[in-house]
Write a structure and sequence with these properties.
By secondary structure, the protein is mainly alpha-helical. It contains four helices and two strands. Strands 1-2 form a two-stranded antiparallel sheet. Strand 1 and strand 2 form a beta hairpin. The longest helix is centred in the middle third of the chain and has 19 residues, at about 35-50. It is rod-shaped.
Length: about 100
């Protein structure tokens, strides 16, 4: 399949070397899809954990519901190996009350 580029308003066909370079760049991008997805999941997970860090202070008694919620958040990335699995993750429901 031919690929094209536009230079100074003129559309021209890419050379074989340019097509190969574009293919390599796409393959590199695609190969890192899982890393990007899991990184995004961990970022969201870490935000949710940070929102509840005060429950983990030594002078606060944490309920079992909060302990379970926080452990479920920490475990949320376990066993994930594909982007589809990461995309299908459902975050645990935050307990009500304290």
């Amino acid at each position: 399949m031919a690929r094209y580029k536009t230079i100074n308003g003129i559309t021209i066909e890419c050379t074989a070397a340019e097509v190969a370079e574009l293919d390599d760049m796409k393959a590199d991008w695609d190969s890192k899809a899982f890393d990007r997805a899991i990184s995004g999941l961990r970022f969201k997970r870490n935000q949710l954990l940070q929102e509840t860090d005060f429950y983990a202070n030594s002078d606060v008694t944490m309920s079992d519901d909060w302990k379970t919620y926080r452990q479920d958040l920490r475990d949320i990335t376990n066993g994930l190996t594909t982007v589809a699995e990461v995309d299908a993750v459902t975050f645990p429901t935050k307990p009500s009350g304290e």
